[in-house]
Amino acid sequence: MTSVRQRLVPYWLLAPGLIWLIVFFVIPMYYMGELSLKTGSIDTGYQLTWAFSNYTDAISQYSTQFFRAFYYAGVATLLCLLIGYPLAYAIAFKAGRWKNLMLFAVVAPFFTTYLIRTIAWKTILDDSSPVVSFLKTIHLVPQDGRVLATSAAVIAGLTYNFLPFMVLPLFAALERVDIRLLEAGKDLYASATQTFLRITLPITMPGIVAGVLLTFIPASGDYVNATFLGGTNQAMIGNVIQSKYLVVRDYSEAAALSFTLMAIILVALIVYIKFAGTEALMGDEEEAE
Amino acid sequence: MTNIKMKQIRLLVLGVLALVASLVLVACGGGGGLEGSDNSNVTVAEGGDPTGSLNISNWPLYIDGKTISNFQNETGIKTTYTEDVNDNNEFFGKVQPLLSQGDSGGRSIIVVTDWMAKKMYDLGYIQKIDHDKLPTVFNHLIPSLQHPSFDPDREFSVPWQSGMTGLVVRKDLAPDVKSINDLFDPKYKGKVTMLTEMRDTVPLVMAADGIDPVDASTQDWLDAIDKIKKASDSGQIRRFTGNDYVQDMAKGDVVAAIGWSGDAVQAQADNKNIQYVQPEQGCSIWSDNMLIPVGAPNPAAAYKFMNYVYQPEVQANITQYVNYVSPVEGVKPILEKRDPAIANNELIFPSEEFVKNCFNQVSPPGDEEQQREVEQAFQDVVTG
């Protein structure tokens, strides 16, 4: 008897998550998939016509916005990595008793909503702000130029908003680096660069992979930053989907666009994990044993 | 060996469970409001003794702070006033699945703009109103709003507030902007915005080119959209906005915009240089309307509320706060005593001379399909 009960335990543990995912992920996905193959409008109703043309139309018509979304998200992810890695490194190894406070500082922006933080950037970057005047004095921005309502502003907003998603996994990975390995490297006459490249970096690869995924995926679907910080011709694919759903109310094509976005991200993800290696993602667990 | 078998069985059980659960839920879920609708069986909202509670959905900053509590105290109707209409399209997207099932989500009054009111009515989402139950409303409704083209006999809509769409400019930074065409002047490159609401932006651009928006063809709309697209691609237009252009303008990032009269009045309180300018070729006049949706739980209370806000004394409080054009006659004399600056403001009580070139807000011509083509073309510029 006990053995049957014991065998059921995993299912009970799984149940809440499973039901949650079925109700709020699988079923909506099913509806969206079906909707993406329908034709019609709210007035006439939607009929399932297996309209695969929804997909080809969506992709050919909005390839610019797709490309732009991945470009913005890609640059933002790279910037997050370049800013986040030294930051996480400093917190993990050099912060000493300030460690907890600094970690808190990384997470602190979450206490304000995403929307408010993004809108605050409008003030930071507005045409007559000190930040922009400074950028003009050092000739990073031309005298008659602006920052707000440009691609740079959208990418800066994305970088800022997703930075914690990069820093936290990096920190988790760096924290677990065994100091003795670094000491061993030094003992064997490795330079600081060599130690970093051949010990620290490979060990923290899982953190980098996780950080890149957590940053890139939400960033490529984002539409808030482009709405508030972007100008004309800076819309990302998220803006197109939002306008298709809520303004034009072409639900079928909106669904097709959403699926296409998911598919592209999924393929990119698979390629990336293949490239970065599954060990990079799973490796630390084996080491932990 | 047995271990692997056990795993396979577990997986199988899980899979079957998941499948059954999803099928059950799909069956319960139903079609979710994606089948078509029409208004062949619109009912008239019932009156009766107003008691109980009343839920109203309106736009943000569209009522003064006292009216709702005064209404509650006088009538004993518990009123929940929610500012959840930010955009006609978004609100429609939110309530459409409910309304198509005959459910208003507990709302007995919703407030949307003329064209959206018509659209919802045509879909059968709105009940007709009984004029006999609205004596105060129809005794005080101003003549210019009694027979709008979208609802000539006011069969289903009661105006909440009206306003004008025209030019909003920084007088100190762009003193010579007088026509919508001035927005295309290279002098103001990157300092100009237009509204994301197509029906606000496109007709004004057409009118500026001498096309009467009221008789414009689909091609006229598409031509005007093309003109906007060129200005957008060249960087002339900084961005397309909701009413957040006001903040950009306060900072001087934007010097001229297509905007709403009420925004200009409110912004002026903080910055004297922000002004509404009546475009030379005319403005667009619109109203937001109170509607009783299908499935409204308390239409009697809705009638009571409509009558209540059409009392000039009550309306004067609202006008004083929102600064839009009031649909109620008899407000001006009250405000002349109380707040002459508002009573003499052409944007709140426009003279005939002031609005002589203006037209009622229009939608693209043709059937649903043609309208959607135009809407799509405009959205492709906005999300270019």
How would you portray this structure in words?
- The complex is a heterodimer of chains A (289) and B (384).
- Chain A is an all-alpha fold.
- Chain A has a single domain (55-288), classed as Orthogonal Bundle (MetI-like fold), CATH 1.10.3720.
- Chain A is built from 14 helices and 2 strands.
- Chain A has helices at 2-35, 53-61, 63-94, 99-107, 114-124, 130-137, 151-175, 179-187, 192-203, 205-221, 224-229, 237-248, 251-276, 278-288, and strands at residues 38-41, 45-48.
- In chain A, α3 (63-94) packs parallel to α7, α7 (151-175) packs antiparallel against α10 (205-221) and α8 runs antiparallel to α9 (192-203).
- The two termini of chain A are 32 Å apart.
- Chain B folds into 2 domains: 53-156 and 292-310, Periplasmic binding protein-like II (D-Maltodextrin-Binding Protein, domain 2, 3-Layer(aba) Sandwich); 163-285 and 359-382, 3-Layer(aba) Sandwich (D-Maltodextrin-Binding Protein, domain 2), CATH 3.40.190.
- Chain B has 14 helices and 10 strands.
- Chain B has helices at residues 2-29, 67-75, 88-99, 114-122, 135-140, 198-208, 218-233, 245-251, 261-268, 299-309, 312-322, 331-338, 340-343, 368-382; strands at residues 53-57, 78-82, 109-113, 158-170, 192-195, 237-241, 256-260, 274-277, 284-291, 359-360.
- In chain B, α6 crosses α7 (218-233) and α11 (312-322) packs across α12 (331-338).
- The chains are: A mainly alpha (289), B alpha/beta (384).
- The interface between A and B is large, with 45 and 49 residues.
